[in-house]
Structures are given as C-alpha cells and as structure tokens.
Design a protein that fits this description.
The chain is α+β, with helices and mostly antiparallel strands. Helix content is about 30%, strand content about 25%. The protein has helices at about 1-20, 60-70, 105-115, 165-175; strands at about 30-35, 90-95, 120-125, 130-135, 140-150, 155-160. The model is unreliable at about 1-55 (pLDDT under 50).
C-alpha cells in the first residue's frame, strides 16, 4: 500500500508540473495561476539521476529542501521512506507543522529560500485551504504544498522528482507494478 501511495504522489507531481488542467497549464477555474515569470515546462533529461547534464542528485535536492525548511523554522516529521527503486529519482520531506507557530509563514519562507537558491517557480495553485507551488531546477521539480489549517488536518510537504527519462521510466514501472 505504501508503494502505491508513493507512486500516486510521484504521478501527482509529474501531472502538476506538466501543467494538466488547461491548455496553458493554468487551472484558473479552480483558483490557479498561470506559470510564474513566463516559465515554461521543466527541462526533460537534465537531472543527474537521468544521465542528463544537471548537477543535482537526490541527496543534493534533499539537502537544499531541508536547509530551506529548517531555516524557516520547520523540523522534519518522520514518515514513510521513498521506495528503494525510486530513491535516486524522488525526495520527500514533510514538515512537522505542529512544531512551528505559523506554518504558512514558514512555508512561504521555505519557498522563498528555494527560489533564492535557483529554483524557478513554474506554477501556483492557490485555493482557500491549500497552496501548491511547483519549482524547477536542473531537471528536478519540487511540489511544495501547504494543505489544511492549524487545529485541523494540516500537511506541509516538499516532494521532488527527477524529470529525466530514466526516472520517468522508473515511475511508470513502479506504478504498473503496484496496480491491483
């Protein structure tokens, strides 16, 4: 069941970043915005795990997310590990939102730090109970999400995927292997 959850999360990241929802990649009917700063779709095949020319690998991406999030006041919440066959293609970092006084402020600060570190915001979906931002760098995409509200169910997570063809194949194979 955990593998299916990870495959679904990875597929969700790929769909969000690919711009599903309308012709221009925006989902304005549901409160989304067009891609930020005139950005286009993520580069394919540029990630280190894909054999591309990128300089990032999963460990470097995790370090960047963790550094930005902890500088903003978040602590990592223990959770499910990424399946072994996807570890070089995917990073998951979930914040323990109960250990910070203003999770939205810390989320915004984390995203701002990632942007300062070269991550380009490519898409934002901003709805009353959720904000999701897609950021790209060196063939990797991060889905940064703040969903829910304090006092209720609140999830703040940063899920990164390598967009290269090797990892795309690994995600498809994992999804196919976990269909029931």
């Amino acid at each position: 069941m955990r593998k299916a959850k990870w495959a679904a999360a990875a597929a969700g990241v790929v769909l969000l970043v690919a711009g599903c929802g309308s012709e221009d990649g925006a989902d304005k009917s549901k409160g989304g915005e067009a891609p930020a700063s005139g950005s286009s779709a993520p580069a394919v095949g540029a990630g280190a795990g894909s054999g591309g020319s990128g300089t990032l690998d999963a460990a470097a991406v995790k370090k960047e997310i963790e550094s930005a999030a902890t500088a903003a006041g978040f602590a990592e919440k223990p959770g499910d590990d990424v399946p072994a066959n996807l570890k070089s293609c995917m990073v998951s970092w979930t914040a323990d939102s109960k250990k910070v006084s203003d999770s939205r402020k810390s989320y915004d600060a984390t995203v701002a730090t990632l942007a300062k570190d070269g991550w380009k915001e490519t898409r934002t979906v901003d709805q009353p109970a959720a904000v999701i931002k897609a950021l790209d760098k060196s063939g990797w995409s991060v889905k940064a999400s703040h969903q829910g509200k304090a006092g209720a169910l609140l999830v703040v997570s940063f899920i990164a995927t390598d967009n290269g063809p090797t990892c795309a194949k690994a995600f498809q194979e994992d999804l196919a292997n976990n269909k029931h």
